[in-house]
Structure formats: C-alpha cells, structure tokens
Amino acid sequence: MALLFVIALALVATSHAGPESIVATGNSPSYVCKSKNSYYNVEGSCDSYIRCSDYVAVYQLCPDGLHFNPDVRYPNYPCGYPADVPCLRRGAVQPAQPTEECPHQYGYFPSPSATPDNCGHFRICIEGRAVDLDCPTGLAFNPDTSRCDWPSLVPSCKASAYLGFSCPAVDDNDDRVENFKYPGNCFYFFSCQHGNVRLLSCDDGAAFDSASGRCVDEELVNCTQY
Fold first, then answer.
1. What residue range is the signal peptide (predicted)?
2. Which end of the chain is more exposed for a tag (fewer CB within 10 A), N or C?
3. Distance between CA atoms of 81 and 90, rounded to whole angstroms?
4. Which phi and psi angles does 191 have, rounded to 5°?
C-alpha cells in the first residue's frame, strides 16, 4: 500500500504542476521570497502555495484532491494526500473537479463494488481516472483514513462476514489473545482479542500449529490436514 502512495504521488508530480502565476520577481531576498529556493503557504488556503525559485515567487495550486505540505523542502514535490497532509484549520480548498469515476481528480476512495461483507476494494484516482485495486489479504479499505486497515477498525465493514470467521464471545475485561486455524491454508490464522478478529500470516519458513495456537517451523506442521 505504501508503494502505491509513492507511485501515485510521482505520477502527480510529473503530470500536473498546478495553475501558476508570477507574483514577484527579483534576484535578492524580498518580502515574499526570504530564501532563494523555497515554498511558502498561502494564508487561508490548504492547497495553494508560493514557490520561490532564484527569488522569483510563483503562485501555484495543488491538483484537486491534494493539500500543500508546508514541511516539504524544496525542490521536493510539495503536494500530498489529505491523509498524509491534514489541513489543520489552515483554510479552504479549491472546488472539487469530479468526474464520472472520481469525486476528486486525485485521491484514494472506496470502490463502488465494495460492500460491508466485501470491503477490501478501493480505487485510486489520477487526473480524474480511476484504477480499482484491492487491499492486502486480511485488510479492508478505511474511507476515514484513505488507507487499508484492520477490518474491525473500519466502521463500514462487517469484519466477521468479510473474513469469514467470528471470534468466541469474551468478557470485556478479557485481554487474552486467542489464535485459530485458517481453513485450507496453514500459513494464515485468525487472531482474536476483545472479540475482534484479524487475519494474520506466519513469517517465512513458519506455519500455524493449531495445537499450540502459534506459528512454528513449517516442517513441524502437517499442512495437508488444513
């Protein structure tokens, strides 16, 4: 998932620099460009900024769906996804530019095919065009964070139905972690705590031993019985 974020931002940086206009020129520090090469945020805006290059100040606007990151150092691309760059009451954003496929030109959004029982689907939008993807095994897309997350932490997801397993009922004060085998695959297992289920996998070279409830050397596990 992290790699997808990096690739998507690289595509943004190379395909769209945003509207720009020169707001000041010069070859020495000014009231706008106090540093020769730098970025400055625009007061009252989450997605516009000033780019100073050789003390020339240029007003720029991040692509729709992205926010200006005031912590980015020049010349790195200064716009990022809202999940990574919260606005934090810095101001407003530009009007959305939706398409038939996407609510914004850029961003991560739930897939139309996602349901509470099948919540691992999401889509990434680049220049208003959607690419549908799936979260890694055992994770669900969380619209609140625009990331893949544990299903039990996604309000719109029915974790037990999605993963195909319900944890035994436990007392609210019971902090024990119980593990259960995953039918048909000895390298995965269900882990339960406070009644919440997660699908986990053993490390390379290990398999789940249902007798001990933990991962052991795979040579010690008869995977044919799964």
1. 1-17
2. N
3. 15
4. -120, 130
Structure tokens at 7: 């690739």
For 226, other C-beta atoms within 10 Å of its C-beta total 16
User: Following DSSP, what letter does each residue of 170-225 receive, concatenated?
Assistant: --TT----EEEE-TT-TTEEEEEETTEEEEEEPPTTEEEETTTTEEEEGGGS-GGG
CB neighbourhood size of 211 (10 A): 8
- If one counts every other C-beta atom within 10 angstroms of the C-beta of residue 34, the result is 11
- Residue where the block lists tokens 């031993």: 209
Name residues whose C-beta falls within 8 Å of residue 181's C-beta, 6 or more positions apart in sequence. 189, 190, 208, 210, 226
φ/ψ (deg, to 5) at 202: -75, 160
- 7 pLDDT higher than 50: no
Whole-prediction pTM value? 0.81
156 touches 118 (CB < 8 A): no
CA distance 218 to 111: 37
What's the first-to-final CA gap in the chain, in angstroms? 29
The verdict on whether omega for the bond into residue 75 sits within 30 degrees of 0, i.e. cis, is yes
| DSSP secondary structure letter of residue 32 | S
Amino acid (1-letter code) at residue 218: E
Q: Residue 224 region, left (φ>0) first, then alpha (ψ -120 to 50), else beta?
A: alpha
- The backbone torsions φ and ψ at residue 194, rounded to the nearest 5 degrees and listed phi first, read 55, 30
pLDDT at 172: 75
Amino acid 6: pLDDT: 46
